[in-house]
Structure formats: C-alpha cells, structure tokens
Automatic annotation (TrEMBL), chains A, B:
Species annotation: Pseudodonghicola flavimaris
Sequence ranges assigned to domain Peptidase M24 in this UniProt record: 167-365
Taxonomic placement: Bacteria, Pseudomonadati, Pseudomonadota, Alphaproteobacteria, Rhodobacterales
Listed Pfam families: Creatinase_N, Peptidase_M24
Protein name: Xaa-Pro peptidase family protein
Domain Creatinase N-terminal: 16-159
C-alpha cells in the first residue's frame, strides 16, 4: 500500500490565510473568529480526535492583516505548537468561572482595537462551539461588533486546493479498497451489526485513521432509511445491503456508499442499481463550472425519471474536512459550481413503499468536467453469497 | 461473548422525563429546548451516527407537562418513530430559507402559548447546535423568553440509572477486553499509527459499535501530551505506550487508558505506574456521596504527592453519553458527588520535562463507595516485547 504524504507545508496554510484576508477585505470585517473543529483545522492543521470531548472551547482569530492567533486550552498547546501557528495563548481549561472568555476578549481587543468588526460563521450548517452564556459574556466584555461572515469561511473551504484534492482522493481510495473486500465479511446469515463492525475493521486495515461515520441497511429488495444503526438481524437472500461510510485519513473525509445483493438480485433491483450508476456517470460527464447546485439536482432527477421515482431530499452535498459541508443538491440551492469543489452525487430510486436504493460517488469539479475521486461503481450490482 | 441487552424500555425514558419535569417546576421554566446529540438521545433513545453531519439542526421540546415533541429533519422520521416519541414533526432539511425555524417557533407557541419561558442548556460545556442566525430568527419569530436551564439537564444526566450504569459497564468491558489483547498488536518495531489502527480493530472485535475516540502516545520513559494523533514512529525499547479510548456501545462511552512498557521498564516508570494505580485504588475506596469534586481532586493529588509532581489540570470528569460531561476534578468545581454519578479518575505523574504517565479508571459512585466499571489495572505495568 503506497500511502500519500500527510499534512501540508506552511505555504498551503499561508495561501488559505491570504484568501481569507482578501475575503475579509471584500466583506468588510477586521477579523474572523472561528470555534469549530473543521474551521480551525483548515487554517492551522490542528488535527486531533480530542474534539470528541465537548468540555472545552477552542478559538482561532484570523486578523485582516497578520498571522492567526490561537486562544486555546493548555492541554492543546504542545500539539498546536507543532504546526505553523506561532502566537498561541492558553488557559487551564476547564475553568467554571472564566473558561477562556476574558483571555479571548483581551486578545481580540489587543489585536484589533476597541471598535473592530469581527465576523463569525453564523449561516446554514454552522454552529458556535462555545456556551451561549460565555458568548453573551464575550460580547459584554469587549465592545467589538460581532457579525456574520457572509458565508466567507464556508466559501473558502468549498473550493479545494490540489493538495486537498489529493488528500480526499487518498481517503476515497481507502474506502474503495474496503468496499472491494465486502465479499469477505458479508453473506446470508451474517448479522448486520457484525457486518458493520467488520467493515470498519476493513477500513482501518486499508488505511483509515478512524471511521467517524458508517450507516447502512439491509432489507428485501431495498431499504427504508439510511441513518439507522445496525440491527442484529442476519442478512437474508433477496436483501439489498447498503454500506455508506465517511472515514477519515489525514483529517479529510470521503462519503460514498455501495450496494450489494444478497444472492441473485431481482430484475427491479438490478435495473435500479444500473440506472443509478448510469445517471451518476451521465450527470458527471455533463457537469461544468457555472452550473448551479439546483441545476445539478435537476439533472440527476431528470436522468433518473425514466427509471422510477427519484429518491426525495437532497441528492448530494459538499465534502472535505466535514462529512457534509457547503452546498446542497436541492432545488433551493443556487450556489454556482466552481472548479475545485468536491461534491457527492447521491441519487436514489424508490422501488416501493419503504424500499429504496441510494448510490453515492465523490467527484471533484474541474474546468473540463467532473473527475471521480471515489473509484466508480460498476453498473452491475455486486452479489454476495446468498 | 455474552452481550448485555440493548436499549431501554419506555419506562426508563418516562422516568427521565418525570425527573426533568420536576426540575422544570423547581427552576421555573415551561419547557426545555434541546439541540445536541447527547441531550436528545438521553430523552428519546434516538441513536444514530448521522450527527457526524453538521448540516441539519434537530430539536426536542420537553414541556413542563405532557410528552416530548420532536421537531426534526424528515430524514430522521423513520428512526425516531421506532422509539417512544409519538409527536414527531418534520421538515425537508436542509432548507436555506427556513431550516426548521418557523416549524419550531409554531410548535413552541402551540404547545406553550405566547408568554412561556423556555430553558436551554447554556452553561459550561454546552453548545447550541443550530446556526446563530437561526437562533436570532427563532427568538424574533416567537415572543417566548429563552433562558438558561440552570444546569438542569446536565444535572439530570450526571446521575445515572441502574440501566445506564449497566450500559456503561458493558462498554467498559469491551475496552477492557481490547486492552488485554494489546500484546497481540504492539511490540518494539511496530509503528504507533499501526498500533492505533489495530487497537481500534480489537475494540470492534470485542464488541464496540464504533470507536469515536482514541488518543495516546509512545515515548522514552513517559510522554508529553495525550491528545495528539499517532505518528509513524516505531515503538522502541524503553518507550511507555499509552492508549486512551472512548469507544461506544449502545450509545454509551467508556473513557479509560492503559500504559505499557516496551521492554523492561525503568524503576522510575515501574514505580510511577504502581503509584498511580495505588492512588486510584486508595481514593476510590474512600470516595463517598457528599464529598465535592474539588475534594476528590485534592485526594488524588494528596495520594500522589509522595511519588512526585502530580500531572496538572483536571484529574477526572463525568462520563456517559459523552466522552466527557458534567463535573471536573479541579479545585474550582464544588459539585457535590451523588450516588449514581459515573466518574473517571485520571491522575498523572510528571517524571521529567515532557515525560508524564497518566492512568485512568471509570467508577460509579454508590452510597457505600466507588464501584469500578473499568476492569481495574494491576499495579505492575504490563510489558510488551522489547
């Protein structure tokens, strides 16, 4: 297994900072304040599973000019110092009376003066990762104006650099190798929860750092929902097994699924699978910068409509340092697609009440069209021992 | 492997609701509004890895009288309906213009009338899992008064039922079996990132549903920090390897670590390990309801001080549906310990600059003292092939 290099040179982070600073000038803010794992990782390279602990807040300040400043719990200082961030200020979190709030307020005021405008991600899909009480206290402590970032950070993160694309491709390759080995672990009689455990083991064996997301289902001729945990029910001949994984390698996610027939598939299942794969191939081939997310959604529906009722809801989304991020393939999302965006294409076909097939691939949009990052599925649904 | 039963009967959730409703009467609020995975899981049993996607907000309303109402994305309706919640209202998320906000506002007003007071977790360690823009819009749309919950939800979750204690014990047992097999995967020459992957595989083989958290380190005579990802450096004779896992089974976390010597340990490492294990045994034996978190912190420091400088920072925390939750073993936390609280005891000893050992166990506090949920470590540090 030839594993691609890990991490990025400082120049990658400086380029991200420069884009952010150009954006800040355009939207008129004096700094960005970031609090979430993905936003902080994007600008610093601070990669740790410690975000699983919700106890402590973490802050990164990107000033409109100059280098970022990290205001973080002391427990993270050694790891942050291994990266390119030089100005790291810490407090011994958690501190019930003042959990970094006054340190953050002082740092913001020192860097920006008393009248600055600070932008935060506040729109769709964002969260503020600090207690609301502390958020109110921060605003009271410093007279700064806090406001939305006009989607700046999400917009920057949506368009990937070549280094990021290579990282996501490497992640997708790990999942591709694991999916190719599902015949080793799944056949009629194996309980679904055992398949889930073994599939995660395959992901690790093939190079995943960890497996934050695995969903799936197995049911006769199609499944009802795609977010439930595994039951202990054994696979049965006639089931369609679907596994959908978002594993991480070097911080980046993949997010795609594969379907398997347990024993010979019915004609309906076979045709639905072929139609889904064909629709993704067809739509990917026609994809170009300048189209909108809504148009891409429409193209996926149109490609599937000869084959049955397209699955409802969103038919894909952005992908990167989060399992899902950025644009949504829905009629209401008018985001204009740009070269460098990494997108999941995730159409479904409803075969009957509570019986659906969903197929998903990951692509990067180039000037000339879509390039698959996930190793594309074959039209024939793979068959497990029935 | 005899796996304990999964899930809880409706009576468990009704008991949790009743405690919440008694608490609401005491703090004077007409409903609780919950948005995070752990809070919603606690009251509904809605267990899914789909929280890994930050795209969609999820809402649960607990009225001061009557049953809970879930206001959730349509993609979660089928799974939520399998549990005990009867009133489930959905919208086709994500919707850029109105992502559940008006549905939530209408539902709150319908349930509570126009002048109610709604409590949300807003204190230490909490987050509001919805965009700030939507939070402002919600407050503008309905004239309700939103306020902190006075720590009510965290307080309820901190004291576990017998069913929860059994679930956490089962999770700890999975990790215990995986730790007992570390000799199979770790010896001098094996790269640390390979040890991390293989250890996660062992956790899955032993019954973990998934492994959200694994941290650790390996370094000569002790390690510097405990939150970094694994390097590709091979284990070397003289290293101390530490693995710290928070795996999940049926929704509940464990959080404990184990240390291993690569080849024969130095006397300093051997003594530090024995002292840490002895300190946890000694402090656990003396633990009683009515003591405070600060006193427990002090007891751990006192037990270790004859053996060297105790590791700084927090020496343990609450545990349950989150890797870390509730109280902190720090001098500033005056939380009074109660029977039913599940706590990690996590002392460290500093052996030199950048050289530390940390040992962690999970216990439940009973009226008569602490009961170990993690299979307690032996004082002798286990030795891997050097």
């Amino acid at each position: 297994m030839t594993a691609p290099a890990r991490g990025f040179p400082e120049s990658e982070y400086r380029a991200r900072l420069q884009r952010a600073q150009r954006g800040m000038a355009a939207v008129g803010c004096d700094a960005l304040l970031l609090t979430t794992e993905a936003d902080i990782l994007y600008f610093t390279g601070f990669l740790t599973r410690f975000w699983e602990s919700p106890t402590r807040p973490w802050f990164l300040i990107l000033p409109a000019a100059g280098d970022p400043v990290a205001v973080i719990p002391a427990i993270g200082a050694a790891l942050m110092a291994r990266g390119w961030i030089a100005d790291i200020r810490t407090w011994p979190a958690p501190q019930p009376e003042d959990d970094g709030v006054s340190l953050l307020a002082d740092t913001l005021t020192e860097l920006l003066g008393p009248r600055a405008r600070v932008g935060l991600p506040m729109g769709l899909e964002t969260q503020l990762r600090m207690p609301l009480t502390d958020w109110a206290r921060l605003q009271a402590l410093c007279g700064l104006r806090f406001d939305g970032d006009s989607g700046l950070v999400a917009g920057l993160r949506a368009v990937k650099s070549e280094a990021e694309i290579a990282a996501i491709r490497a992640t997708c390759a790990v999942a591709g190798r694991a999916f190719a080995r599902v015949t080793e672990i799944a056949r009629a009689g194996v309980p679904l929860d055992q398949v889930f455990r073994d599939f995660q083991r395959l992901c690790l064996e093939e190079g995943a750092d960890w497996v934050p997301y695995l969903a799936g289902a197995a049911a006769p001729g199609g499944y009802e929902d795609v977010i439930s945990p595994a039951t202990t029910e054994p696979l049965r001949p006639g089931d369609v097994l679907m596994l959908d994984t978002g594993l991480r390698r070097d911080g980046y996610f993949c997010d795609f699924d594969r379907n398997y027939a347990v024993g010979p598939p019915s004609p309906a299942v076979r045709e639905a699978h072929a139609a889904l794969v064909a629709a993704v191939e067809e739509v990917a081939a026609a994809l170009r910068p300048g189209q909108t997310a809504a148009q891409l959604h429409g193209a996926l529906r149109a490609a599937l409509s000869p084959h049955g009722e397209p699955g409802g809801g969103r038919l894909g989304h952005g992908l990167g340092l989060q399992l899902t991020e950025g644009l949504s393939l829905i009629p209401e999302d008018r985001t204009v697609l740009e070269a460098g965006m990494v997108i999941t294409l995730e159409p479904g076909i409803v075969l009957g009440p509570g019986r659906m097939l969903v197929h998903e691939e990951n692509v990067v949009l180039r000037e000339t069209g879509a390039e698959f990052l996930s190793p594309p599925a074959a039209r024939d649904i793979p068959v497990l021992e029935g």
